């Protein structure tokens, strides 16, 4: 066999090995992602609606996978340091948030809390009646010190009519 033919054959073999390795890595990564996603429960509050109005997969309750840590349905509120609900009142840096089950939770907002309402805003820009998702750390007294407060569009998250 002449030298140019050996070079071309070598390049083809290298390209085939690289393509096979790439494909194998993609298949492996997809299997890992699927296994990880199946192992992590995704909980949505009852009545949760996607912005486009499409149905969520699952059993129709808004839950995917296991229930929250306390065994209760209700998604976000079942996990320590998170609450999903409506602001009932605001007193300075304290929000009183009521979840879908009617449970009240005090939320302490600090100067490092990220508050988003289609853009980053201050606690003074929040209003009672707005639906929020709060993420933070639960305190000994049951209140939450918020890391973030996200305001949802009216009716989108708590089962109200789609707007």
Care to describe what's here?
The chain has 1 helix and 8 strands; from the N terminus they run αββββββββ. β4 (about 95-100) and β5 form a beta hairpin. The protein is about 25% helix and about 30% strand. The model is unreliable at about 60-75 and about 155-163 (pLDDT under 50). The chain has about 160 residues and is an alpha+beta fold. It is rod-shaped, with a radius of gyration of 24 Å. Strands 3-4-5-8-7 form a 5-stranded mixed β-barrel. It has a two-stranded antiparallel sheet with strand order 1-2. The chain starts with a helix and ends in an 11-residue tail after the last strand. The protein has one helix spanning about 5-40, and strands at about 40-45, 65, 80-90, 95-100, 105-110, 115, 130-140, 145-150. It folds into 2 domains: about 5-40; about 75-150, Beta Barrel (OB fold (Dihydrolipoamide Acetyltransferase, E2P)), CATH 2.40.50.
């Amino acid at each position: 066999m002449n030298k140019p033919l050996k070079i071309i054959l070598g390049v083809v073999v290298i390209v085939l090995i690289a393509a096979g390795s790439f494909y194998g890595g993609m298949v492996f990564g997809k299997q890992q992602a699927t296994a990880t996603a199946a192992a992590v429960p995704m909980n949505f509050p009852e009545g949760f609606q996607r912005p486009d109005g499409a149905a969520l997969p699952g059993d129709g309750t808004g839950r995917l996978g296991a229930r929250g840590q306390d065994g209760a349905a209700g998604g976000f509120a079942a996990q320590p340091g998170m609450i999903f609900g409506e602001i009932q009142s605001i007193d300075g840096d304290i929000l009183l948030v009521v979840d879908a089950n009617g449970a009240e939770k005090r939320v302490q907002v600090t100067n490092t809390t990220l508050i988003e309402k289609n853009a980053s805003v201050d606690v003074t820009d929040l209003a009672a009646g707005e639906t929020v998702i709060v993420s933070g750390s639960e305190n000994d007294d049951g209140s939450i010190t918020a890391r973030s407060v996200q305001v949802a569009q009216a009716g989108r998250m708590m089962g109200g009519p789609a707007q």
